[in-house]
Amino acid sequence: MISTRFSQMLGLRHPIVLGPMGGVSGGRLAAAVSGAGGLGLIGAGYGDEIWLRQELALLRMPKRAPWGVGFITWSAQRSAVELALDAAPDAIMLSFGDPRPLGSVVKAAGCRLLCQVQDVAGARLARDAGADAIVAQGAEAGGHGGGRGTLALVPAVVDAVDPLLVFAAGGIADGRGLAAALMLGAQGALLGTRFYASVEALGHAQAKERIAAASGDETARTHLFDAVRGLAWPPQYTGRALRNAFLRRWEGRGQALTAVLPEVRAAYRDATRAGDFDTAVVWASEAVDQIRRVERAAALVRRIASEAEALLRSASAHIREAPPARERADVSRHPMPQKEMP
Length: 342
Fold this sequence. Notes:
342 residues, alpha/beta, TIM Barrel, 8-stranded parallel sheet, 3-stranded antiparallel sheet, 11 strands
């Protein structure tokens, strides 16, 4: 079993966190991840309180296990956060925006505060807001994010906020990603897209199948899906999605889209209701290459943890003892002959 300071803090068997994907990470999915030993987070997204009440009611686990709720910081209202806190979660996660106003509400309630960030400045702001742990999210992530890659961002955040707990997100979908995150100094990993393609996720079945069939080369970061949905996302956050006919038609043609936005928006809403993903968005990470089928979330948690543990145990096979000093000296006195140039 892999044990980290983060898993010890929350009493997890595995340092694996469900990304709180809005409209995807509902009560059943969060319960499945938590029940398997990870941390399940309900994706409350923009703070729809009616939806949140419904999903909280579905959060039933056979035994006590840590769980939480995630919000989009720039959109969520205090009342929605208080609604989540009334259900006694173990953690609240805030993403995309200044965490201090809502973070103070979370801390006053005695709940753990997790903050997702996309750069080092955001990590320092989250630390000052009283975060108990920080999610360093790389641009490989599905859905909304920033511009820095996971491999470089995670150790930079770890160094910037040490000794605060950090875990990694963005482009992680299997045990290799979890093991790599730990080697970068993270205390665990947050996975979104891998759990989107799970039985318990709320997403449409056709969206899940598209994820399982896709390649990371078929994803792109864009503002277009936010524009057609009428969502005022801050400009620094683009969304990574699978390329589809809608994106190919309008990519690079933002002004043309604006000119016909009312009719395009109506058609987009119809496509979303019909499950037409040639038009509607499927948020997806670059790590879709590692996703081959739709699976049960609990099985995913156990396999990812097992894969990472096996990799960490085998890592020492790459280490070779240096030759004795005398042997090194002999080699230096008798260098290999150099090949004569013609």
